[in-house]
Amino acid sequence: MAGCTPVGAAEDPPAVSDGQESNERHPISGLEIIDVTVVSGETRHTFKTELADTGEAQTRGLMFRTELADDEAMIFPSYVPQTRSFWMRNTPISLDIIFIGTDDRITNIAERTEPYSLDSLPSDGLASAVFEIRGGLSEELGIEPGDAVEYTLPENPAE
Predict the structure, then answer these.
(1) Contact (CB, 8 A) for 106 and 147
(2) Which of 27, 57, 117, 150 has an alpha carbon 20 to 30 Å from 49's alpha carbon atom?
(3) Domains by residue range for the chain, with CATH
(4) Residue-wise pLDDT tens digits, 1-14
């Protein structure tokens, strides 16, 4: 589980690229930062997003973090679409866990998760990624199932 921690974290990524690399790193996690945009009707919400693109990063997730700004997020790509399940182990802040289907649309949202909970929070079907933002922010911004999620995974130079 991620967190939060994924139960059965995704495999390490294959090389994927749009030819652009951000090289920007988060000061706490050291993870690469990418832009992720959620499209809700005519409104676009863009987040500076930590890319949890390895099994280790996905296992750690947002554990032990005490804050997450409204324009920050973390994304957990599934390089092979799969059912995902997260929990809040060692995560002291509430999150909205957004499950992204294979069509790049939100399938379901676990809103305002309970910090430190060991309850499993599963995706509704196969997920291509899981996206986490501050707890309650999806409702505040009007983000809901069916909204599109846009992001590009950078090239993995280790591959």
Answers:
(1) yes
(2) 117
(3) 5-11+22-150 (2.60.120.1140)
(4) 445 545 444 444 43
